[in-house]
Amino acid sequence: MRVEVLIREGPLKGQSFELNLGRVTLGREPGGHGLRLVDDPMVSDLHGELREETGQIVYVNHSPNGSAVDGITINREKGLTSGSLIRVGESYLLEIRLSEAEPVVEEKEPIWRSGRLKSPAVRLGLVGWILALLGLVYVATKDSEKGLVEQFQSIRKNYLKECKEKMGLSETACQSRIELAEDLVSKLEALERRDLDREARRIYDQLIAIDGDFRSPIYHYAVRNRGKLGRK
Fold it and tell me: Which domains does the chain possess?
């Protein structure tokens, strides 16, 4: 199982970390390869840990200051699901993302070497695929003519559905992500009008990190517009 931690709030906001479980400690001085959470006096040296138990990911609190999982204060441990939110110290809010490890895909002979292109059905399918791809390019081109906020509003309508159905997250987690993205997008147009590309790139990187998933409309919005910086 792949485990990713996204820091939603706190001094390290916007950063994400992929963890290798077994067991990962977190805190101000977690030691080893633990997740170090700095600049918050309420975070203990060893505040807690994430560990895998019989296929489930569990958060274990080690701090007398306590922790909260999905808004519920815990003193010992709590099982997690994808989208769970862990409050650590005064300022840190960590989102847990769980996904299955990528399966090993057997390499197959490329279609252009197999002779299957001689089949009329395969040729027709390829034509349909190419036309669909051209349609996506056309839509992206039209979107690029809109302002940043207008572009974002056009993807916002479908984001909650895509987030739940394609990325498998809860409605609460999806709603939190779209609100975080809106807050970042509201800062972008002012930065680009002032040609502050460096600050804009930093915000685009935070937008990309919200989902970190190429299936996400927010991911595509941020990658597409980040690539335009410096071209004007």
Answer: 2-99 (2.60.200.20), 125-226 (no CATH)
